[in-house]
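Researcher: Next sequence.
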Amino acid sequence: MKKKIHDPKRQQQLARRRRVTRSVAGSKRPRLTVFRSARHIYAQLIDPVTGATLGSASTRAAGLATEGDGKVDAARKVGTAIAAIAKDKKIEEVVFHRNGFLYHGRVKALAEAAREAGLRF
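Model: Next structure:
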């Protein structure tokens, strides 16, 4: 039995996540999944068949941690890094899974940086 969530903001977030996941679910291409917390941003490449993580990048990584550049610039660096990881794995096309987060700000910056680095979605 599922636990009932009484927080309306959390209910809306989960509804957005379910809606986005439904549209991404049947694809044969690897998924570029994004998670955004208050301080960091994380990106993963996930194999659609096995569900295994093919590669990941985040602002918590040693090379991508930024002190004073700001969160949007850090998200751009993560987008460029995840595109480089995809290129190493011979992945050119992915499905962008924004995980219920609005396509705005840091999520948009990550996506655009990945596109500029050569990833297609």
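Model: The radius of gyration is 15 Å. The chain has one domain: 27-116.
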